Amino acid sequence: MKQHPTTANIDQQIQLQQKIIHYRSEISSYENKLKSLETKLQKEKLRNKYLQEKLHLAESINIEQYEKKIAQLENQLLSYEVALEEANNQINNLKKILYSNKQEEKKSVPSIVKMQAIFNYSLILPQANDAEDIVIIGDFIISNLGTEPLQNIITCIRITPKKAGELSGKITIKPLKSKENDFVSNQTSPEWTFAYENWRDKIRNEGEYWIKPTHPEKLMPNEELRFSNFDIRVKKIKGAHSVVIDGFVYCQEIPNGVPSSNSITIN
């Protein structure tokens, strides 16, 4: 059974995130220092080159003063190179710490498998003294509320009593196939198909419509899957005081399934 995050886990995640923000700030600071040192180093190299050229042009004029200045510049260049190497080492160390904290943060995040289903619908009622059926039009929406992707989703929509209504929508009996026996993916093909070969028996005997996506894909966290624009025609059944439409969703990660958050009831 998957467990929800504890307060300790949440505090640990917050501390790790604060550490990551601090190390990123440190890296940015050292990178700025590094750029400044590189700029100064470049300037000093240009000055050194300029002075050496001047030295060759003025061999008989104040040579000793130029030699001292060059020695000073060479020492300064050496100090800049040492500072650059130290800054590079600090940046590399901080990046290693940042990477380590990111990995630790990933490990501390618990794996959650959770999905939700809901009917979004409207009713079309017959006028007074009219013998027409009640029509339900809507969407059946499946949401991934966990942290892990969901695979092989199958949906069951059940009508009780079983003969009180008929479901119709974008459902194909046999998905179209290409020459390579792969499902053809195009905008004109239906989105859903019956999940079992004996689907007619399940409708007739149980009032259950078992369907699955025609082109199954993983349902990623925070994504939705919709059985859109279905309609159910509800008939008057002698002795039946109400009609109930329930929904259920199953997947590879939740084989026992979950019921829809709401049902449709007509009295």
Structure notes:
Residues 20-104 form a coiled coil. Keywords: Cell projection, Cilium, Coiled coil, Flagellum. This is Flagellar biosynthesis chaperone FliJ. This protein is α+β, with helices and mostly antiparallel strands and 267 residues long. It has two domains: 7-108; 115-266, Immunoglobulins (Immunoglobulin-like, Sandwich). Helix content is 39%, strand content 25%. It is built from three helices and eleven strands; from the N terminus they run ααββββββαβββββ. The protein has helices at 7-57, 63-108, 199-206; strands at residues 115-124, 134-144, 154-160, 165-168, 171-172, 192-194, 208-213, 224-234, 243-250, 258-259, 264-266. Strands 3, 5, 6, 7, 9, 10 and 11 form a seven-stranded mixed β-sheet that branches. A four-stranded antiparallel β-sheet has the order 1-2-8-4, with no helix packed on it. A hairpin with a 7-residue loop joins strand 9 and strand 10 (258-259). Helix 1 packs antiparallel against helix 2. The two termini are 38 Å apart.
Detail the topology: elements first, then pairings.
Blueprint: H1 7-57, H2 63-108, E1 115-124, E2 134-144, E3 154-160, E4 165-168, E5 171-172, E6 192-194, H3 199-206, E7 208-213, E8 224-234, E9 243-250, E10 258-259, E11 264-266
Parallel strand pairs: 5-6
Antiparallel strand pairs: 1-2, 2-8, 3-7, 3-9, 4-8, 6-7, 9-10, 9-11
Helix pairs in contact: 1-2
Coiled coil: 20-104
Keywords: Cell projection, Cilium, Coiled coil, Flagellum
Protein name: Flagellar biosynthesis chaperone FliJ
